[in-house]
């Protein structure tokens, strides 16, 4: 340690110099005041007038390229990566040649490498991009997530990439493609959303090292020049002899010959064979088997109308545009950020989505296959900053759209058409590929870090209906294409639409968007009593324990999650809980992580289950201490914090109150943040859109005695309403302690499903006053 410390100090003495530093300051103060602050804080930093450390040359020599590595991962992963060392892009920000190349190789529509591979059932995903590794070199890489069949045909997968690259080399740079990208980048910079000040200043300070003064802000975003010679130079580097191919899969276990020095990863290294080199070098789109490869179509989704809608009459929060048996829609014209952008979030909710383990898996399939069916237009849409996505939830499927409002309705119509026809269009090959992908995702969950498994274990105990991973994997194995088709028809025949339309749209335009959805899908209205609701276990005033062995037997880490259940709260109680969590957050990190070194992950937060049941959460992951020890240290910590709270003087209390109030009164920085806040309320079913402000108002009223009484009631060891559940996951280092006896007053949960048969559950929450929200 002493040697390491001396090396650190030596580095500081040598390189801590003003001429190597850049500072960005952002504040409400005047420029003179900011300049004074800068001089006071940084004025005494010595200017040693030295050059930054340089590492000339490239680590990739001709002896290290033209190689193929076979690597064994820990998780059940299958992918191939092609890596090409290229020249540094430090001075090429004006033309951004790697962005042009990554755009063409990474596009996902008709003619793309990914579409070609998916058609053959060989790949699930592809990403391409450039990385500026150092001052003298960069890399270009193409990474392809493979199916089992793709792993068996990996040489053909690589051949498709080289066929596309060879096409780019033969035809030369396509100016129209770059001009499209340039137009979109100009629009995106013109309408760039605000970010958190800390994020903005960090980026600007870094940019000051990379760009001239006039381009410090715009440099990362805009493409200024079309330089076909530079593009050609980079494409010419993408040849077999300058490539390193990584093939990563569990299938190579026991077949590799070498072990990596630092992490012990098993791998083999060999030259790309002469036969492979000839095949990949000669790869051509003129080959009948590769003739479907080609450039993307011209993008007809690029926005050209940036007119802003009149927000009058202004509304502080979204209003209820429609409330019918088929839908509930909230709407707000943006009057704050004044950008030509629109966010549309919609949930198709039905009890059929999670009725059985098989239904839960089929809902995953439905969302993933919808994404796949939209690929031929969604990538071009995303290049025009029209973004969309779909994902499964316990209540159904959520579809999000965001971007320039001008053509967002076009994208919505395309998505709805694909969803409506999904059961007719889905093919066996796609079904099997999604099934394989889902199986891989479920399997890899078992290799996630243990704290993920602790959270999962808690949800199994607390939610009335929560299918475990074994149940879903068993259901997955028996599913067929016919099952999916029947489920899709059943799902779409009857659901309740929840929707938020927020941004640059008039009320009339919002109405048309709602009509677009309902006319396209034409769902029957479900019985209100059949709408999905997650109910939460109502714990008694005692302690519960659920423990199990870490799924990955080789993982040395253990994890602990504790929930202290507060329950369905009043606004005042919710505000008190928020304040208590604020008081605990920094000391928990400082004492439990920094001083007691319980583990790298020490986290406190609030957890809301079932929409409105509140808990204080403590989460720890450790390879040094077992979960029982960590639990005891948490209890000791809470006892100390109770004493700190009792002795807290008025000034410290008031300072903490101000900090929470300022946090909750802080305005959203952009349209996306505000939409997410509104959608969170809609999804929970509470629809209290002013909640942050109301919580701040309540925190402002808190008195020390109120907070101490809350602490003594819910968190103190002898509190009359202290309801605690801890989930303990035992890794390899602590497995021997898992079966130790527990105290008589602790309820040991052996099986979550059996446990839930004998506990009561909170009743569903009362519905909000929707009549009072109508526009």
Tag the structure with descriptive keywords.
775 residues; six-stranded mixed sheet; 42% helix
Write up what this structure looks like.
- The protein is an alpha+beta fold.
- The chain contains 26 helices and 21 strands.
- The strands form 4 sheets. It has a 7-stranded mixed sheet with strand order 3-4-2-5-1-7-6. It has a 6-stranded mixed sheet with strand order 8-9-13-10-12-11, with helices on both faces. Strands 17-18-16-19-15-20 form a 6-stranded mixed sheet.
- A hairpin with a 5-residue loop joins strand 3 (123-131) and strand 4.
- Helix 3 packs across helix 9 (228-235), helix 6 crosses helix 10 (274-281) and helix 20 (571-595) packs across helix 24 (691-701).
- 34% of the residues are buried.
- The mean pLDDT is 95.
Give the topology, please:
Elements: H1 2-15, H2 31-42, E1 67-71, E2 78-87, H3 97-106, H4 113-119, E3 123-131, E4 137-146, H5 148-152, H6 154-171, H7 175-190, H8 197-207, H9 228-235, E5 244-249, E6 258-259, E7 266-271, H10 274-281, E8 319-323, E9 327-333, E10 341-349, H11 357-373, H12 375-383, E11 386-393, E12 396-404, H13 408-420, H14 422-425, H15 428-445, H16 450-462, H17 469-477, H18 481-493, E13 496-503, H19 507-521, E14 537-538, E15 543-549, E16 558-568, H20 571-595, E17 601-609, E18 613-622, H21 627-647, H22 650-665, H23 671-684, H24 691-701, H25 704-714, E19 724-730, E20 746-749, H26 752-756, E21 760-761
């Amino acid at each position: 340690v002493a040697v390491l410390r001396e090396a650190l100090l030596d580095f500081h003495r040598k390189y801590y110099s003003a001429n190597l530093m850049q500072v960005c300051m952002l504040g409400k103060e005047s420029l003179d005041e900011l300049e004074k602050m800068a001089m006071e804080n940084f004025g005494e930093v010595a200017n040693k007038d030295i050059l930054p450390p340089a590492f000339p040359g490239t680590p990739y020599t001709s002896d290290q390229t033209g190689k193929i590595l076979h690597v064994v991962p820990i998780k059940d992963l299958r992918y191939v990566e092609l890596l090409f060392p290229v020249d540094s892009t430090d001075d090429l920000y004006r033309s951004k040649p790697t962005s042009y190349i990554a755009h063409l190789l990474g596009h996902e529509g008709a003619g793309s490498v990914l579409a070609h591979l998916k058609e053959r059932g060989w790949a699930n995903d592809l990403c391409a991009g450039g990385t500026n590794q150092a001052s003298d070199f960069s890399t270009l890489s193409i990474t392809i997530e493979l199916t089992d069949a793709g792993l068996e045909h990996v040489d053909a997968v690589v051949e498709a990439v080289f066929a596309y690259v060879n096409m780019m080399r033969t035809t030369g740079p396509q100016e129209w493609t770059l001009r499209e990208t340039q137009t979109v980048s100009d629009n995106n910079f013109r309408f760039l959303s605000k970010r958190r000040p800390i994020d903005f200043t960090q980026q600007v300070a870094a940019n000051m090292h990379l760009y001239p003064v006039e381009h410090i802000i715009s440099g990362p975003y805009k493409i200024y020049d079309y330089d076909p010679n530079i593009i050609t130079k980079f494409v010419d580097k993408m040849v077999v002899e300058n490539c390193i191919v990584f093939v990563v899969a569990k299938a190579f276990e026991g077949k590799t010959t070498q072990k990596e020095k630092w992490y012990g990863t098993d791998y083999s290294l060999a030259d790309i064979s002469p036969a492979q080199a000839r095949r990949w070098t000669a790869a051509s789109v003129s080959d009948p088997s590769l003739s479907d490869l080609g450039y993307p179509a011209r993008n007809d989704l690029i926005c050209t109308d940036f007119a802003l809608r009149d927000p009058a009459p202004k509304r502080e929060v979204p209003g209820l545009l429609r409330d019918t048996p088929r839908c509930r829609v909230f709407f707000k014209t943006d009057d704050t950020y004044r950008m030509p952008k629109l966010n549309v979030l919609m949930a198709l909710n039905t009890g059929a989505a999670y009725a059985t383990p098989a239904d839960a898996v089929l809902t995953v399939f439905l969302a993933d296959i919808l994404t796949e069916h939209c690929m031929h237009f969604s990538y071009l849409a995303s290049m025009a900053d029209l973004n969309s996505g779909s994902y499964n939830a316990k209540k159904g499927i959520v579809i999000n759209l965001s971007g320039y409002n001008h053509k967002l309705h076009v994208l919505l119509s395309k998505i709805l058409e694909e969803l409506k026809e999904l059961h007719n269009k889905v093919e066996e090959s796609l079904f099997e590929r999604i099934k394989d992908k889902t199986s891989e995702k479920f399997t890899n969950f078992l290799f996630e870090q243990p704290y993920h498994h602790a959270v999962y274990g808690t949800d199994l105990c607390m939610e009335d209906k929560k299918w475990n991973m074994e149940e879903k994997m068993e259901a997955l194995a028996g599913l067929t294409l016919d099952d999916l088709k029947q489920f899709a028809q059943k799902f779409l025949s009857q659901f309740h639409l929840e929707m938020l339309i927020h941004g640059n749209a008039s009320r009339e335009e919002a109405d048309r968007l709602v009509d677009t959805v309902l006319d396209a899908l034409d769902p029957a209205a479900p019985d209100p009593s059949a709408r999905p609701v997650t109910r939460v276990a109502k714990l008694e005033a005692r302690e519960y324990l659920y423990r199990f062995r870490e799924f990955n037997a080789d993982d040395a880490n253990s994890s602990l999650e504790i929930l202290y259940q507060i329950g369905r709260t009043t606004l005042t109680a919710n505000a008190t809980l928020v304040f208590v969590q604020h008081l605990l957050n920094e000391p928990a990190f400082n004492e439990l992580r920094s001083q007691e070194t319980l583990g790298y992950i020490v986290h406190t937060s609030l957890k809301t289950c079932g929409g409105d049941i509140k808990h204080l959460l403590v989460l720890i992951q450790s390879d040094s201490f077992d979960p029982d020890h960590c639990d005891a240290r948490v209890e000791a910590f809470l006892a100390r914090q109770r004493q700190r709270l009792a002795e807290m003087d008025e000034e410290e209390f008031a300072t903490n109150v101000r900090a929470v109030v300022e946090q909750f009164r802080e305005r959203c920085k952009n349209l996306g943040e505000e939409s997410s806040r509104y959608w969170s309320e809609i999804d929970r079913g509470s629809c209290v859109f002013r909640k942050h402000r109301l919580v701040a108002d309540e925190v402002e009223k808190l008195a020390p005695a109120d907070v101490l009484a809350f602490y003594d009631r819910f968190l103190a060891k002898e509190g009359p309403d202290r309801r605690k559940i801890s989930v303990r996951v035992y890794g390899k280092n602590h497995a021997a302690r898992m079966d130790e006896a527990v105290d008589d007053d602790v309820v040991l949960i052996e099986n979550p499903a059996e446990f839930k048969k004998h506990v009561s559950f909170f009743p569903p929450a009362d519905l909000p006053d929707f009549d009072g929200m109508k526009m």
